[in-house]
Structures are given as structure tokens and as C-alpha cells.
Amino acid sequence: EVQLEEFGGGLVQPGGSLRLSCAASGFPIKNYHMRWVRQAPGADLEWVAGMGTGSGSETYTDSVKGRFTISRDNTKNALYLQMNNLKPEDTAVYYCELGPTRGRGTQVTVSS
Q1: How far, in Å, CA of 70 to CA of 66, rounded?
Q2: Residue 21 and residue 7 in contact, taking contact as beta carbons nearer than 8 Å
Q3: Residue 58: CB partners within 8 Å, gap ≥ 6?
Q4: What is the pLDDT of residue 53?
Q5: Any long-range contacts for 42-49 (C-beta under 8 Å, 24+ apart)?
Q6: Looking at the DSSP assignment, which residues form a beta bridge with residue 97?
Q7: pLDDT score, position 103
Q8: C-alpha–C-alpha distance, residues 3 and 35, integer Å
Q9: Residues 96/6, Cβ–Cβ less than 8 Å
Q10: Residues 51, 56, 57, 63: is their CA dihedral positive or negative?
Q11: Is there a contact between 81 and 69 (Cβ–Cβ < 8 Å)?
């Protein structure tokens, strides 16, 4: 059974940083395209970043380019999202996804 669980959310001031983690079980992430998505209050789900199986395969939505970095550790079967220079508009529940499978999410709140 494919399972995903996100960690690392919290409250941070504008300009701050957070690192989200996604622990995967039931499959080896190294063989799959993985992505981070987010949902802000009252908004639709938004794709944030994706990562294929090869190096240099990272892609980002325009609003986070240069601030967020997606990465994976195949030995730990984990996906990460390093978020720097956070802005209030980054406030959302963040989820990692593989195909139709999504974790329960972790809340990120950017506020002074």
C-alpha cells in the first residue's frame, strides 16, 4: 500500500524558511515522479513543484521559482521541499503526491 506522510510545517515570519519532508512507504520513490501541491484557504489545489527520476528534472510553479527547492533522498525514501524567503501568500496546507495518492498534509502559515 502506498502511503505518504508530510512533516515540517509551522508558523514562520515573512522572509523565513521551512523544510518540509514527505515520508513514503510501500514503494521506492526513486522510480517515480513525485510532486508537492498546496491548498490555500478557500482556493483550489495548486501544483508547486515536481521531480522526476533523473537529475535536473525539477520543475516549479512560477511563484516559487528561486525560493523553493524540491529534492529527494532515495536511501530514506523521502521527498523534501526547502522553502526560503517565505511570503504570506505561501500560506497553505502542503501535500506530497504520487499519482492519485496524497498525504494528509502539513500546515504552513506565513505571518508576522
Answers
A1: 11
A2: yes
A3: 49, 50, 51, 69, 70, 71
A4: 86
A5: 43/92, 45/95, 46/92, 48/81, 48/94, 49/81
A6: 35, 102
A7: 95
A8: 14
A9: yes
A10: positive
A11: yes
For β-strands 106-110 and 92-98, DSSP reports them as: antiparallel
The pLDDT assigned to 1 comes to 87
At 60-84, the pLDDT tens digits run: 999 999 999 999 999 999 999 999 9
Cell readout for 45 is 489545489
Amino acid at site 57:
S
Q: What does the alpha-carbon distance between residue 92 and residue 110 come to, in Å, rounded to a whole number?
A: 9
Over residues 47-63, the pLDDT tens digits come to 999 999 877 789 999 99
Q: Which of 5-9, 15-19, 88-92, 97-101 has the lowest mean pLDDT?
A: 97-101
- Residue type at position 80: Y
Distance CA 18, CA 112 (A): 15
Q: Are 68 and 83 in contact (CB under 8 A)?
A: yes
